[in-house]
Design a protein that fits this description.
Trna Endonuclease, Chain: A, domain 1, 2 domains, 6-stranded mixed sheet, 9 helices
Length: 251
């Protein structure tokens, strides 16, 4: 409330200056007031963004603390059989946080659903979460948003697409179909963007419950991935012993 009042005071004072002071003096006073109003506006915008991010994260955290087993079951269902994109985004947020990653809403950007940081590093992902009945196609609006993020991202940030594809199929059938079109695969490689499907993310999450894989190692490999669809086989090859990433057909 204080910042808007300060802006109002500066506006009134600049009008008063225009009426009461000489030409030379009022020019500098009005210019000073306008600059100060701009600074106050930026400060107010930053404060509102921080409050919004804190509110959104608190809301998600509060919902995850209520009956954790039920919330996680709902998140698992939303990953594998999402009803809409907003529910899917919340489920991805919960799962990534449960995996030990630092997840924020990314309110400082115009074009990502979440910012996800790998703990104890400066590496981060700008996450786009999308849904597709069949394979993902380049004309999906989330890929336009991904290109926007490419322009505004910081040095240590990488674009990552988390895609729910073929969600009408039984989970056991999803490895038998392609998750992206050839055109999209070329697009991802060309822009050094990686894509991981939600059922792959679910596999990682399930294995993490039994401490059967190196979560941070997987996401380090994902960060270093040259682009395209991320395969867990690459991660398996980098581990001392291969892991079986089979997935149960029911939750």
């Amino acid at each position: 409330m204080a910042l808007p009042l300060l802006q109002l005071f500066l506006a009134v004072f600049s009008i008063y200056s225009a009426l009461k002071f000489s030409e030379d003096v009022k020019f500098y006073i009005i210019l000073f007031c306008l600059i100060l109003m701009l600074v106050v506006s930026w400060a107010d915008k930053g404060k509102r963004k921080a409050m919004l991010q804190k509110s959104l994260e608190s809301e998600i955290d509060a919902s995850s603390e209520k009956e954790p087993a039920v919330v996680k079951e709902q998140a698992a269902e939303a990953l594998l059989w999402p009803k809409n994109e907003l529910i899917l985004i919340d489920a991805v947020h919960l799962v990534l946080k449960d995996l030990g990653l630092k997840v924020s809403t990314g309110v400082d950007y115009h074009s990502v659903d979440r910012i996800v940081k790998i703990p104890e590093t400066q590496k981060a992902f700008g996450i786009e979460v999308m849904m597709s009945e069949n394979e993902a196609e380049q004309n999906h609006p989330k890929f336009s948003r991904a290109l926007e993020f490419e322009k505004e991202k910081k040095k240590k940030e990488k674009t990552l697409i988390i895609a729910s594809t073929h969600h009408h199929l039984p989970v056991s059938e999803r490895d038998k179909v392609e998750d992206t079109s050839k055109e999209l695969e070329d697009f991802l490689i060309r822009h050094n963007m990686s894509l991981i499907t939600t059922h792959r993310l679910y596999e990682i999450w399930q294995k993490a419950k039994g401490s059967e894989n190196d979560i941070l190692g997987i996401f380090q490999n994902l960060y270093s991935h040259p682009g395209g669809v991320f395969s867990l086989k690459n991660t398996e090859d980098s581990q001392p012993s291969p892991l079986d990433f089979s997935i149960p057909q029911t939750i």
